[in-house]
Amino acid sequence: DLSVSQALPIGNFPLRVSAGAKWQSEELAAYTYGVSAADAAASSFAQYDPGKIIITHISIGTAIPINDRARVLANVRAEFLPDEVSNSPIMDEKVSIGALIGISYSF
């Protein structure tokens, strides 16, 4: 995974935007997005092997302080799936969006 990021201080919300790309080996891509021969035989999906893939992504996040030890973390990430992934019989989308909300506490 290779990415670049930039902090954007906007008021009390320190935003961080990033963009990048991650490479997945043939084995990992097949495990994640492929359909093995055994799975194809046991289902209605056709056998599929996406090969090696590169997935590009962008994200925006923040860490908002609650007090000296705690802060709220939030992040939204969009991954733009290549044709090798979106052509898989088990995939319907070209974009995968994920979100994270959490609390960080320092001891």
Report the β-strand fraction as a percent range.
Answer: over 45%
Main sheet record: 5 strands, antiparallel
The count of DSSP E runs of length 2 or more, i.e. the number of strands, is 5
The coarse silhouette is elongated
What's the tally of helices?
A: 3
Low-confidence stretches: none
- Sheet/helix structural class: alpha+beta
Helical fraction equals 10-25%
Radius of gyration: 18 Å
How are the strands ordered across the major sheet? 1-2-3-4-5
First and last CA, distance: 30 Å
The averaged pLDDT comes out at 95
Order of helices and strands: EEHHEEHE
Written account of the structure:
The structure is a single chain. Helix content is 16%, strand content 52%. It has a five-stranded antiparallel β-sheet with strand order 1-2-3-4-5. The protein starts with a strand and ends with a strand. It is an alpha+beta fold. It contains three helices and five strands, in the order E-E-H-H-E-E-H-E. The chain is elongated, with a radius of gyration of 18 Å.
Core attributes:
single chain, 107 residues, alpha+beta, five-stranded antiparallel sheet, 3 helices, 5 strands, 16% helix, elongated
